[in-house]
Amino acid sequence: MSGLESLYQELILDHAKNRRGFGLAEPGAHSATVHQRNPICGDEITLRVSVEDDRITSVTWEGAGCSISQASASMLVALLQEDGGDEGMPRADAEALIASFRESLRSRGKIPLDEETFADAAALSGVSKFTARVKCAMLAWVALEEGLRQA
Hints:
alpha+beta; four-stranded antiparallel beta sheet
């Protein structure tokens, strides 16, 4: 295993154990709660997103599953918090991130996730080579996408 692969594995394990955004916040006036399940491996997530003035003000979640699904949800929340700052990430920016993440994970390793754009979530690039694991990594991102449609 290369040094970079080892680092990515450590990031995934860290996020799976120290889950950012874990624990559902109280629903707000402009929030949506979405439940997603991966029937192939049993991963589940319930994600709550709050949106005000077309900006994501909060994303919290609860779930259970493999390290990849748990780490991916944690990495998504960390990314939204870092890039959104105190004002929250614009909905359009989050939708663009989701689309780029999906494209990369469906590329079977041909399109790596950019570290500048995806921060720790770039560690999930290698998942795209394992078709059965793509749904694990996508679960929280699909839940956010659905939540943004509903909020």
